[in-house]
Amino acid sequence: MTRVLLIEDDPAVRRGVSLGLRHRGHEALVVTTGEDGLAELVASAPDIVLFDLMLPGMSGLETCRRIRAFSQVPIVILSARDDDVDIVVGLEAGADDYVIKPASGEVIEARMRAVLRRTSQPSVDQARTPYGDLLIDRVALRVLKQGTELALAPTEMKLLLFLSAAPEQTFSRQQLLEQVWEHTFHGDYRLVDACVMRLRSKIEDDSRDPRYIQTVRGFGYRFGPL
After folding, report:
1. CA nearest 122: which of 108, 112, 136?
2. pLDDT tens, position by position, 117-169
3. Judging by DSSP bridges, how do beta strands 3-7 and 213-216 pair with one another?
4. What is the DSSP letter of 177?
5. Residue pair 6/14 in contact by the 8 Å Cβ criterion
6. Contacts by 202-211 with C-beta closer than 8 Å and gap 24+?
7. What is the pLDDT of residue 124?
8. Domain 3-120 falls in which CATH fold?
9. Do domains 3-120 and 128-223 have the same CATH topology?
10. Helical residues (DSSP H) of 24-139, grouped into ranges
């Protein structure tokens, strides 16, 4: 049983989503504010967190940032705000996916499962591989830079593992959506770009002049050359 923390202040949405989660066999922990969500996260250790951007008191973005300050629990934002800026800011704050409301229970379930698979599936490559001053441990799912472990969110880790497994091979944004986010439809490339920006800020000496995650203009990204 997956333990899902839902932070939602709208009564109708809260009831609909929580009922859908329970109908699909999940345990739904439901609170209405970001402050209560942080407390519930510490008390109950959920497997995944769902929340809206527009919350009373502490905003969804601030809630996301505070969660990421101490936890790498998977996060999916559910929001009616579909502006590019809102989506990118939400992803840069540390969310692993962004679902635009209204969304069916089937869509929410599929996106949750994809995020959870990215979190739980280790790579089949069992090597501890050095790349310059980075050490990628594919067994323990750890990344060290000059000996210091980096705090990577699950999607950032999955993206780095995927790209680094094929150095100098270029992948389109659509290919990355399919392989990392497991979106088999024509997806939203902003998910990829925002995740690359967050990852670069953690692994690069200068994210404006990246050494590891290279942009192939008009197409996608590749790992290296180092």
Report:
1. 136
2. 876 654 444 457 788 889 988 778 889 999 899 999 888 998 998 898 778 88
3. unpaired
4. I
5. yes
6. 202/150, 202/151, 202/152, 202/156, 203/134, 203/143, 203/145, 203/150, 203/160, 211/132
7. 43
8. Rossmann fold (3.40.50)
9. no
10. 34-44, 60-68, 84-92, 105-120
At residue 103, the pLDDT reads 85
CB 58 within 8 A of CB 33: yes
pTM of the model: 0.62
Q: Domain map of the chain by residue range?
A: 3-120, 128-223
How many Cβ atoms from other residues are within 10 Å of residue 166's Cβ? Answer: 12
Q: How far apart are CA 115 and CA 190, in angstroms?
A: 16
- The pLDDT score that the predictor gives to residue 94 is 87
Q: Quick check: 226 pLDDT over 70?
A: no
User: pLDDT band at 44, cuts 50/70/90?
Assistant: confident
Residues 6+ apart with CB under 8 A from 23: 105
The predicted pLDDT at position 85 comes to 86
Topology of the domain comprising 128-223? Arc Repressor Mutant, subunit A (1.10.10)
**CB-neighbour burial class of residue 112 (10 A; exposed 0-12, middle 13-18, buried 19+):** buried
Residue 196 is which amino acid? V
Given pLDDT bands bounded at 50, 70 and 90, which one contains residue 26?
A: very high
